[in-house]
Amino acid sequence: MAYTTSLNVKTVLGNQRVHMYKVTADAASDEFDTGLDYVNHLSAHQNVTSTNVSVLPNVLTAATAANGYISITGCASGDVFFLTVYGV
To answer: Where along the chain do its domains lie?
Structure first.
């Protein structure tokens, strides 16, 4: 199962591309492609019932490096994340 990912804002701040996402979990873990070549920083605001949630940039859920991807693990179905992603 894939997470539901909505790209709400796509803009530029200085030399960084900025994407803002709403991500809704429907499984314990998943990853998604941001469309960026590399994620420099991300900010995650969570509305979750789960504990021990991990949100990692530039990696797949199998702990494999993958530039431009974001991996989210430890979720319950229905958990919602609002992510602001900065990258190039």
So the answer is: 4-87
Quote the CA–CA distance of 33 and 70 in Å, as a whole number. Answer: 7
Furthest-apart CA pair in the chain: how many Å?
36
SS3 of 14, please? coil
Closest C-alpha among 65, 47, 16, 48 to residue 56: 65
The whole-model pTM stands at: 0.90
CATH topology of domain 4-87: Immunoglobulin-like (2.60.40)
pLDDT (0 to 100) of residue 51:
82
pLDDT at 25: 93
- Number of C-beta neighbours around residue 25 at 10 A: 23
